[in-house]
Amino acid sequence: MIPKPLCGTGSLLLLLLLLASGCSCGRASVQTNTANLQMSPDMTRRLTRKSRKKESKFTCPDSLGLPLGDINLLVVTDIHGWIAGQHARHEPEMNLDFGALVSLYERLQECAPEEDFFLFFNGDFMDGTGLSAVPPEHLAPLLAEMPFSAVNVGNHELYFTEVVDYMMEKNGFVDHWKGNYLASNVDYIVPHQKKKNKKGDIKTVPLGNRYTFLHGANRNSTILTLGFLYNFLNNCNNTQVQFVEETLQEDWFHQVLTQSTFDAVIVMAHMDAVDSLVYTILSAIRALVGPDMPIHFLTGHTHRRHYEVLDPLAVSLEAGRYMDTIGFASLPMKQTQKSNAIDANLYQYRMLNTNLEELATTVLKSNADFSTHRGRALTKEMQHLQEKLGLLDVVTHCAPQDYHLEKAPDDETSLWWLYTQQVVPKTLLRMVQKEDGITPIFMQGTGALRYSLFAPVVVVDDIVAVSPFDNPVWQIGCSLTAQQLNQVFVVLQVDEPSGYWDLLNFGVAGDRPDPTSVDSTKRFDLYTTEFEIGRVMGGVQSALEATGETDVDGCFEGNRPVYPASGSRMPYLIHHKRHNGEPLDTADFWFEFIAHEWRCPANSPTDKAEKHGETKQWLMAVSSPSGKEPISFEIATMAAAFLVILYAFASVRKQNVMSRRSGDGTVQLVDTRRTSRGRGEATPLLELQADDKDSTSYSL
């Protein structure tokens, strides 16, 4: 007999409550009166006393620790779902979440009521944590709680049609901002209008407003605000991105700059702080408004901190990534600038670290808790959602060490070393290895992994943060010679520096041939991800041409040709053999590797906290109201750890999970999300099978 996973579909908290109350989950369903599962009054009082903060009441200082001006800007950019203070678990110096950002903004307004403050978000909220699922039905409502003055489009919002369609729903995310969601050079293709009409046109509307005017009530300022995206080429097929240079020639651009009255220009530009397009936009604006108009660029995309003086009256500020930075800047109104001639002191900035204590002491000059009611409510809402989605559920307590994204791939503390030397070989390459002796090779651009992995405890959200993309695996090259494969690497500059930290352009997993090898007897199959298909396919074609071949015969998977077989130029999608033929994506590698390779040693404590303090008291207390004797704490913690692991696996697809039992007695945890894409039956994530000795084995 084996325990039925999840005891139905309840939360992890309910599982532990059932466990401590003597729940025995077998083949029969269990009916439980959860109303009787409650803490003893004494235990409740103890936990309440422990959780209660010792706070002093916040009072405003005589002056703020910021260089204030006529117009005061706060900006965050490239948050990629990092809104709930996720850093704090591993990097406690970054402990600010969006609730605290709301509180800070409200305190600034409260403590300097005579000043005007504006809060901006410069794009890229998708692809980063478990909150940023596709479509953004969890993340977008949280963003809508923010008091942003204006929001810009980012490229990561444009990768999936489902995301854009969700944003453009009537009374949806874009509409929520009442004209202040900006897309100066991005259009939306109206559904059911994607076919060209007789004139060769399709019906499009701007994804957001081309521009907006913001008003400062205290200084009576009017700010023209634009929102550009760089010349992005990989957008989904229900959007169109117009090149910036073309947008600058549009009638609306000339009219708003020449026929409107305003005191400054803010250009939200989702591009690097010193991108050549920044200077192109600046030149176009200067040609229309003259040399004495204050212009401030809020930039992003390249995930760095940077401040640049572009001309005597124009600057550019880029405020980091992943909520590690709040950018602050102040600038003058046009009439102030005129009265002071050219005064660099009128343009000020600060890069603020997202540390609550530092912000309190340096900006608000206080040691008191500066949270506001609205901020606390948003923090609580985000925490509840993380728990509901299972993002904080533990996958393992026994990660051996930290693995850092920025380290060189030959460093054994590098995330890319772990990925190419351990994760991919023990998952994908083991799965696709054929008996014919052909060596599988996998390559992927180093922009695919997004965050470091920290030991010892790894939760679901940690893995999503490392590999947030739904990125299916494709076979691109089949039965390539060593010379051909090495030529692919040369064409794609695989081993050249990427420009980010110590990373190379690509990570490569598998038994690579010697770069000088001309051995034609050893053959290689080449795999990559959907995002890289275009680049890698082009590299394979160039390599074949360089070696005098255009086709490789005899390369088939069943009756389907595998690129580059004769007559075929199409790559081959790899399907997961254990997931009912579902496409295999790179996130699967991480969950499977960590689940199998980083399991804690048998009979070892999974977490020291579970053996001491209030966890033990809680487990003992919750079983008393049922009238039963408390179960052994050791048994409870061991069984709870087992259920935690099962529950974490079930949370891989963000809670779209149910359990079912097949005819042979196998219990499966099933991913129901994948059926929504028309890819077949619900997908087993985990199988459990008991043998005659009542032990349990599992496969993912």
Shape: globular
Class derived from helix and strand content: alpha/beta
For the record, the CATH architecture of the largest domain stands as 4-Layer Sandwich
Q: In total, how many domains does the architecture comprise?
A: 3
In terms of quaternary structure, what is this? single chain
Average pLDDT value? 81
Query: What is the CATH H-level superfamily of the largest domain?
Result: Metallo-dependent phosphatases
Biased composition (Basic and acidic residues): 671-680, 690-700
Protein name: 5'-nucleotidase
Transmembrane segments: 631-652
GO biological process, one term: nucleotide catabolic process
Structure, explained:
The chain is of the alpha/beta class and 700 residues long. It folds into 3 domains: 5-52 and 599-699, no CATH class; 71-368, 4-Layer Sandwich (Purple Acid Phosphatase, chain A, domain 2), CATH 3.60.21.10; 403-573, 5'-Nucleotidase, C-terminal domain (5'-nucleotidase,  domain 2). The chain has 19 helices and 28 strands. Strand 22 (556-557) and strand 23 (560-561) form a beta hairpin. Helix 1 packs antiparallel against helix 19, helix 13 (415-432) crosses helix 17 (586-597) and helix 15 crosses helix 16. This is 5'-nucleotidase. Residues 671-680, 690-700 have a biased composition (Basic and acidic residues). The chain crosses the membrane at residues 631-652. Residues 1-28 form the signal peptide.
